[in-house]
Amino acid sequence: MARRARIHFVSLRSSLVNLPISIYGPLLERSIRPQNLAIHLKLIPATPNPHGSVEAYVGWTGMASASSLAHFNSSAEKGLETIEIDPQYAQGLGLTQGDWVEIGLLHDLHWAKSVATEPLTSDDWEIIEIHASHVESTLLSQVRVAKVGQEIDVWVMGRTRVRLRVVSVDPSSKGNALLLTTNTEVSIAPKLHRSERRSEISGSKTKSTAQDVPAATSSGGKHSQKLASQVLRALPHRISHGALPEYSGSELVAYVSLSTFAQLHVAGNTKEENNPILCFKSTFKRLLPPPDPSSSSSGPSPPPAPHTRIIKPGAADKEPPSDTGNSAADVIFVGPLNGLPEGHIVFPAAPGNVEDWDLLLVSPSTEDATITVETTHDEDGPTDPSSSGSKTTLAGVDDILKRCTDFCIRKFVLHAYTDVVHGVSALLVTGRPGTGKTSIVQHVAKSVQEDQRTFTYTYFVDVSLYAEQPISTIKSLLKYWFDKASWYKPSILILDNLDKLIGAEVEFMQHADSFRTRHITEIFLSLYSSSARAAIPNSRGTLLLATAASTASLHPLVSTAHVFQEVINVKPPNNDARRDIIESIVRDRLTTAQDIQQDAESPLNFTSLATQTEGYSATDLQDLVARAIHQVAIRAANDIRPAVLSSADFTAAQVDFTPLSLRDVKLQKSDVAWSDIGGLHETRKVLRETLEWPTKYGPIFAQSPLRLRSGLLLYGYPGCGKTLLASAVAKECGLNFISVKGPEILNKYIGASEKSVRDLFERASAAKPCVLFFDEFDSIAPKRGHDSTGVTDRVVNQMLTQMDGAEGLDGVYVLAATSRPDLIDSALLRPGRLDKSLLCGMPNVEERKDILRAVGQRVSLSPSVDLSDIAAATEGFSGADLQALIYNAHLEVIHASIASTSNERDTVDLSTEENPIEFIAVGEPSTGNVSSKAERTALEKRLRQIRQASINEVGSVKTAILSTKKKHDITAEHIRRVLKTTRPSVSPDERRRLDIIYQAFISDRSGDLPAPPDAGGVGKRVTLM
């Protein structure tokens, strides 16, 4: 039996009702969910209604009626049961305050698969467009039941009411309602303004393509009918793809497409051949773009009103025509021309008050004045853009240019078939400084601009210039930049150096203002992200191209919000790309500098130049060519012969030239050559094969199907030449060399050590071909689990990621040295990381002789020294011990020489004392004062210096011979004397222990290496208590 209750109005802001307490109690006891229940309301009229009964299906909020609860206990006869409903929603259903309704509970309704609705008014549709994401996320919480023909209401932000009418449901139900679930698809059909309202475009900013220009109201082609004004975009003459007919008269002439001309002047004959062209008199006004807040003298002003953006294509705003300014309309004669894009107007000679891409409100004149323009070019009108002049090209980045251009064209085509685009379609181009990111996005924007399918406007902004502006100014500028691009759409907005404005937060840099960066990032996301409430309601026809150093250099919120649909990384140019870039730059320079030419007999070998410029970026190559041209100019200033650009000019240009990628990298220089190293012949051979050959014979190794070795481990006894080998690599292999010490990497902050490792490999990649040398590798990458702090564990994990064999290290070689390979984490020793381990063992007799010979090159050894005898007497000595032996012997010679020189000097002083100088002071003052002994001693010393100088001057030749430095040689006696006090640095016990470790490392090489003695097992941590 249906229950009865009175209607009571409560502002619920939804299409749901609160049930009376008598119904709410049983539902609560039976645990009926509100989502599974529908309420049927039937009005009980006081008088018979000739139009039929009023019925409605609504949902339940899950709550009880508060008014019913307050009056439920009054009395049995006067007890008041009420059902609460929103007054605005009740009015739409035909219910009023105090009406009696019958309440029916429906438990077995079917679920709706799809529900099609439409707004009741066009104003409702505009609200839905603006807040589409909010309506989509909150509709199911406000509506539970749908019935064909019934009204459902949705509140936006709890304030604005949107009225919808159900058009159809699936599965179809005859007179019954369906329940809405999370699997129900709810569609809302657009509802536009009427055509007479769409013709009022004077106060609105409409899209500049033909699809959004209001069509002419004439349908029968009668001239007496009123024609609509058109908002046309002034297309630059330079990209109009063809010569336009010239008019010699004083009238201002412009051309539009045939369809646009038909909407402006129906009387015009556009079906016949355009020879001659009949131009009709019209008027135009220039629409003013949004004001620039940075140009305001009173500080940053708020961005323009929302009428600068299109909410729905073809819809016009209700604002007054303020964008056209106060100037009077100018007179223009408009004629049709084949091949021009719709929605555009082209001037053969633009007036002074019209700039490229301006929006012009063109209206047909009431006067039937015409002029005739004779055509002198092809009747088909404009030609293909490729025939109009040469294009500037960027060499070496063809694939990147194609990907960027395809992304832009694909997005514009998608926008053409989409009414509303939420969020900005964005592309991010990343790369290190000097790789040409800015040139790439500018070239892409120019290519898309000249494409006949788009004709886009480009607005370029270097945001690094505004990084220090106040936050309020930056907020206004961010909105203004998009508003201006949207004003001229279809358009491309380029934000260069975006990471300078919304960079990543660095927690261990105390001076960084993280709050400011985060605030600016949130402002950027609130405008450009599709998920933000204050986002652009419709970004149709506008793309965003941004550049940054990397995705990691941007704030993490940018990646979380998914602002950029695609990210393209610009890598440093390879050998082929550098060859193309150098050839293109040289060709362009020689074209502009006609006095300089290439040598006809020996032209430039661009392949060789590309090989010599490994690690150079595009900017570096441009600077290098400029320096080479400068070398030619210097030579031509002193030579009457023609200026010829040769390879020698590039060689001279590379002197003292540091590429941009190497300016912040500390590269180690070394004077150690292979000849300075004795022994270790097999190790040197493998080092040369691994490091020197792939660079020296690059084209040959490029044909190899195998992955090249990129990591080497030098291990061996202390003092056996591991670090010395690495120093020789820095000089002999022609590679850049970066040496790493343990304290440079380790940092107490979580994440800082990993960042140091990443920065190391990035620096090495920037300086490639490069060798990254880790000395005492066991202290940097020990076995994981032995560190109580976990710092080295994180370093090992990061190094495993950087040295992953699946990715490979292109042009970066890792060289590690250690005396304890058993302490290194076994994962780093697997193939693909440190591929090969080279033993630097204790030298034998022949190797010790070779080491003594190499060390003896730096000192003077007497011919009487027998190196074989010394090598035999130094059993157990390492290379460092032998070097110390020779250097100590050299010190013995020096000490003996110093002692001999001191004795000779003492003898000379004694002889001087035996012959004192006698003198008489002449011309002393007549005061009678007697000179003191100190004064006479000083005078005697001065006279002795004068006498010695005269002796040296007389016997200058003899003095020169005597003063020649005597060469002191190291004799066998010196070495034997030093050998008596010298012992090997590696004791026999230590050597035997290391022998066991190295033998186990070589023979039993596996993933489970034995733990070092007294070091604890893997997984155990040792801490000091």
What features would you describe in this structure?
The protein has 1025 residues and is α/β, with parallel strands linked by helices. It folds into five domains: 3-188, Vcp-like ATPase, Chain A, domain 2, CATH 3.10.330.10; 192-389, no CATH class; 396-570, Rossmann fold (3-Layer(aba) Sandwich), CATH 3.40.50.300; 575-662, Orthogonal Bundle (Helicase, Ruva Protein, domain 3), CATH 1.10.8; 674-842, 3-Layer(aba) Sandwich (Rossmann fold). Helix content is 34%, strand content 17%. The strands form seven sheets. It has a six-stranded mixed β-sheet with strand order 2-4-3-6-1-5. It has a six-stranded mixed barrel with strand order 13-17-14-16-15-18. The chain is elongated. Its main location: membrane.
| Shape verdict | elongated
Strands, count: 31
Share in β-strands: 15-25%
Structural category is: alpha/beta
Distance linking N and C termini: 81 Å
CA gyration radius, whole angstroms: 45 Å
Family: Belongs to the AAA ATPase family.
Domain AAA+ ATPase: 423-574, 708-844
GO biological process, one term: protein import into peroxisome matrix
Subcellular location: Membrane
